[in-house]
Design a protein that fits this description.
Keywords (chain B): Oxidoreductase, Pyruvate, Thiamine pyrophosphate
Oligomer: heterodimer
CATH topology of the largest domain in chain B: Rossmann fold
Protein name (chain B): Pyruvate dehydrogenase E1 component beta subunit
Radius of gyration of chain A: 20 Å
Number of strands of chain B: 14
Pfam families (chain B): Transket_pyr (PF02779), Transketolase_C (PF02780)
Largest interface: A-B, 54 and 49 residues
CATH superfamily of chain A: Thiamin diphosphate (ThDP)-binding fold, Pyr/PP domains
Number of domains of chain A: 1
Distance between the termini of chain B: 43 Å
Shape of chain A: globular
Helix content of chain B: 25-40%
Number of domains of chain B: 2
Strand content of chain B: 15-25%
Order of helices and strands of chain A: HHEHHHEHEEEHEHEHHH
Organism (chain B): Georgenia soli
Shape of chain B: globular
Strand content of chain A: 5-15%
Strand order of the largest sheet of chain A: 1-2-3-7-6
Number of helices of chain B: 12
Cofactor (chain B): thiamine diphosphate
Order of helices and strands of chain B: EHEHEHEHHEHEHEEEEHEEHEHEHH
């Protein structure tokens, strides 16, 4: 593929950021610092970063409930993301979105979505604006194997297909929709569904290989940028944590052997080995990279803790661009201590 | 000034907006064919297809029957630099895209902390009173009034249709416009020059001193007819058209009720949780002391819309049931 060493190292850096961020978030949930629910991408970093690194800085991306990895993969700084998870004013959304609705427009991240599949039409629309305005941007929609059975995906693939929009539909198939195995609810192969819409559909069988994901998505991005229309890329991967942090399920829906086998295929460990074996970086340099990212994560947590809670009046801001009287506004309560 | 129909005025507003700003695009089913006459030059069927000639297929986007992605894609396009006008034809079709309206269009600006702007207009027509049966006759604006983040307009005249639509396209927020098919053929003198009617400003259609009738959409001309008839009996009725349901010009309503002391609300939506219910509640909360009689609502009953003209015709606010309501509040 001939990627420059700095690009390869950036891939590892962003995977480390997602891992470090999500592991820290998981701990902060357990300690009660993060309210609400949190869905980590631990184990799926290669799939996220391989896809995002195939995009340019000004390209667009939308995501889903497994939500922190996507903006991190697109280049968002960690501090405002972590502050958002805690509900602080320094959060990337000012504390309005939380884990499920992260967005960082400055890096083209147009928003995660708590409703799975719901952000796919938004990504199609970003492709439409790029097409009408002729600005050569590409739009990528992340969605899971669960959302692959939502009707809006097929409406979106059809529309992007007939209008030849620069859209990449990226199915992150981690094989479970919460506790439901994909094969019990999904007929056929997701990637093959692309054929029905006259677009390429590829399945990356080893979604733990960041370069394999990058290569597949890069092909789709180049096609989109050349005006040849959308593609569907399905990436097979695995989540190492539960669907949601703290979720306790009564049934053991994942086979222990299956889980153990996937845990052996940690994308960050695999790529570190590849980088060393291919002479991209020495062990010392890779250690330094890990330390650098660990410091970023520490700084992000500190930033989140230091950031004040939003003023309660902010509950009534940002609904409209132009001020509109909000009926039923309540007497303001205090922020959590 | 020139005589325009309600539909022609919508076409004229769209043409003006597209000429004024290259970011304005029209998206919808059958918009190339100009089926309802709003994407032509706005004068007659002869002008069919004009928008396509004037603006081309890059800006006139004929879509598949896929409401969910039409609405969501328009939102995504608006978030990234376009100013789409979406023609959803029948308002009953909005339900197909309910997730996109409620979870994306209405929420994105808020939940992303103000990062998103959604300058997008969703047009739809309420085909009631035309024997189109239960799947095409809805008047669903109250459902959307219950979703914070959407602005909602319901023009009741050609002049308002043109001026309000221009303001809607200018708005940086998503606007839903509910157009009334019973008014499609209504004609009046309309300014050919560009003008805008601000959102959130009611129109006093007819001044009066005995009773305030707040009327919405097709109930407005019916309320005027009722007022004309009641004037013959010496009853002075003030007719107010809010024009915009979100934001709602509550000051105009409260000011009028403070003078008349009586309120009738005529609203073609179903009775429960209607716009009339909201307006009545506002007056009950903020102007109770001014009321000399209980508020009366004239709405469509909480039943589905039947096909037969013999069954449908009686259901909506009309001059007779509005006049009867006025007499009732006068005691």
């Amino acid at each position: 593929m001939g990627l420059a060493p700095e690009v390869l190292l950036e891939m590892q850096r962003r995977m480390l950021r997602i891992r470090g961020f999500d592991e820290r978030a998981s701990k902060m949930v357990k300690r009660g610092f993060i309210p609400g629910t949190v869905h980590t991408s631990i184990g799926q970093e290669a799939q996220v970063v391989g896809a995002c690194m195939a995009l340019g800085e000004s390209d667009y991306m939308t995501g889903n409930h497994r939500s922190h990895g996507h903006p991190i993969g697109k280049g968002s700084p960690l501090g405002p993301l972590m502050a958002e998870l805690v509900g602080k004013s320094g959060g990337v959304c000012g504390g309005k979105g939380g884990s499920l609705h992260l967005a960082d427009f400055s890096v083209g991240s147009l928003g995660e979505s708590g409703i799975v599949g719901s952000s796919i039409p938004i990504a199609v629309g970003a492709g439409l604006s790029a097409s009408v305005l002729g600005n050569k941007r590409v739009s990528l929609a992340f969605f899971g194997d669960g959302a692959a059975n939502q009707g809006c995906l097929y409406e979106g693939m059809n529309l992007a297909g007939v209008w030849k929009l620069p859209v990449v539909f990226l199915c992150e198939n981690n094989q479970y929709a919460l506790s439901t195995p994909a094969h019990t609810v999904t007929s056929g192969v997701i990637a093959e569904r692309a054929a029905g819409f006259g677009m390429p559909g590829v399945r990356v069988e080893d979604g733990q290989d960041v370069l394999a994901v990058y290569e597949a998505v890069n092909t789709a991005v180049e096609r989109a940028r050349a005006g040849e229309g959308p593609s569907l890329v399905e990436v097979v991967t695995y989540r190492f944590h539960e669907h949601s942090e703290g979720l306790r399920l009564g049934t053991d829906y994942r086979d222990a052997e299956e889980k153990a086998a996937w845990l052996q295929r940690d994308p960050i460990v695999l790529f570190r080995r590849w980088l060393a074996e291919n002479g991209v970086a020495s062990d010392a340099e890779l250690d330094a990279l890990e330390a650098e990212v660990a410091a970023e994560v520490d700084a992000a947590e500190a930033f989140a803790k230091d950031s004040p809670y939003p003023d309660p009046a902010m509950a009534f801001a940002d609904l409209y661009t132009e001020p509109v009287p909000i009926r039923g506004a309540v007497e303001l309560i205090g922020a959590p201590a | 000034m020139t005589v325009m129909s309600y539909l022609g005025a919508i076409g004229a507003a769209q043409r003006e907006a597209m000429e004024a700003d290259e970011r304005v695009v029209i998206i919808g089913e059958d918009v190339e064919a100009n089926v309802y006459g709003t994407t032509g030059a706005g004068k007659s069927r002869r002008d069919k297809g004009d928008f396509l000639e004037m603006f081309g297929r890059n800006r006139i986007r004929n879509t598949p029957i896929s409401e969910e992605v039409i609405v969501g894609a328009a939102a995504g396009a608006a978030m990234t630099g376009l100013r789409p006008i979406v023609d959803l034809s029948y308002s009953s079709f909005l339900y197909m895209a309910m997730d996109q309206f409620v979870n994306q269009v209405a929420k994105n600006r808020y939940m992303f902390g103000g990062q998103a702007s959604l300058p997008v207009v969703f047009r739809s027509a309420m085909f009631y009173g035309l024997n189109t049966g239960a799947h095409h006759s809805d008047r669903p604006y109250p459902m959307f009034m219950n979703v914070p983040g959407l602005k909602i307009i319901a023009p009741a005249s050609p002049s308002d249709a043109k001026g309000l639509l221009r303001s809607a396209v200018d708005s940086e927020d998503p606007v839903l416009t509910f157009e009334a098919c019973p008014l499609w053929g209504m004609k009046e003198e309309v300014d050919e020059a560009e003008y805008r009617i601000p959102l959130g400003v009611a129109r006093t259609v007819r001044p009066g001193s005995d009773v305030t009738v707040v009327a919405i959409s097709s109930a407005v001309p019916e309320a005027v007819r009722a007022a004309d008839a009641l004037a013959e009996d010496g009853i002075s009725v003030e007719v107010i058209d809010p024009r915009t349901l979100v934001p709602l010009d509550t000051d105009a309503v409260l000011e009028s009720v403070a003078r008349t002391g009586r309120l009738v609300v005529a609203d073609p939506a179903h009775r429960t949780c209607s716009a009339a219910a909201e307006i009545s509640a506002v007056v009950a909360e903020d102007a109770f002391d001014a009321l000399k009689a209980p508020i009366v609502r004239v709405t469509t009953p909480d039943t589905q819309i039947p096909f037969s003209p013999a069954l449908e015709k009686q259901l909506y606010p009309n001059r007779d049931n509005i006049a009867a309501a006025v007499r009732r509040v006068l005691g």
